[in-house]
């Protein structure tokens, strides 16, 4: 009787903790993909010959009125570049479509959203926004 009681307690403990362990495992994958995000304007494209090796971004702080700071971020051949394109003239209005690009497509002055590694040193993905896209902390509509 004593052993069967202990077995039932152990089974109940496993049943109660298994969903939490699975949720923690899934959260670990999300945390890995999340990384650090940087939003700003591309101020420099660093090249070694023809190969792009890094970028500098003027990123505005999250606090209202915060001064912009320049962040240097490394890139390599594994960095994914996505470029937003206007929807076709006859297409349904909505979000712009993103097409895959190359590091060589990056130009000074572009508004970019960058997903970096957790330490913020290397870009994992760079999204180039449409010209005239919403600027974080920009002008308020209706003010003249």
How does this model look, in words?
- By secondary structure, this protein is an alpha+beta fold.
- It starts with a helix and ends in a 16-residue tail after the last strand.
- The model is unreliable at 26-32 and 136-144 (pLDDT under 50).
- It is built from one helix and seven strands; from the N terminus they run αβββββββ.
- β1 (36-48) and β2 form a beta hairpin.
- The longest helix has 33 residues, at 2-34.
- The radius of gyration is 23 Å and the shape is elongated.
Which class of secondary structure composition applies to the elements? alpha+beta
What quaternary form is this?
single chain
How many H/I helical runs? 1
- What overall form do the CA principal axes indicate? elongated
Counting structural domains, the number is: 2
Order of H and E elements: HEEEEEEE
Question: What is this structure's SSE topology?
Answer:
Layout: H1 2-34, E1 36-48, E2 51-60, E3 68-74, E4 80-85, E5 97-101, E6 111-116, E7 123-128
TL;DR of this structure?
With 144 residues, the protein is of the alpha+beta class. The protein has one helix and seven strands; from the N terminus they run αβββββββ.
What brief labels describe this structure?
alpha+beta, OB fold (Dihydrolipoamide Acetyltransferase, E2P), 1 helix, 144 residues
């Amino acid at each position: 009787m004593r052993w069967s009681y202990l077995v039932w307690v152990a089974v109940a403990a496993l049943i109660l903790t298994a969903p939490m362990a699975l949720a923690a495992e899934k959260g670990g994958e999300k945390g890995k993909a999340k990384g650090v995000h940087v939003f700003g304007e591309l101020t420099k494209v660093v090249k070694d010959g023809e190969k792009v090796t890094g970028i500098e971004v003027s990123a505005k702080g999250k606090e209202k009125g915060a001064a912009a700071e320049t962040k240097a971020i490394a890139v390599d051949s594994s960095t994914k570049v996505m470029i937003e394109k206007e929807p076709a003239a006859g297409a349904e209005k909505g979000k712009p479509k993103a097409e895959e690009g190359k590091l060589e497509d990056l130009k000074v002055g572009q508004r970019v959203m960058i997903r970096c590694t957790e330490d913020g040193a290397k870009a994992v993905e760079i999204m180039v926004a449409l010209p005239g896209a919403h600027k974080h902390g920009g002008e308020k509509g209706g003010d003249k």
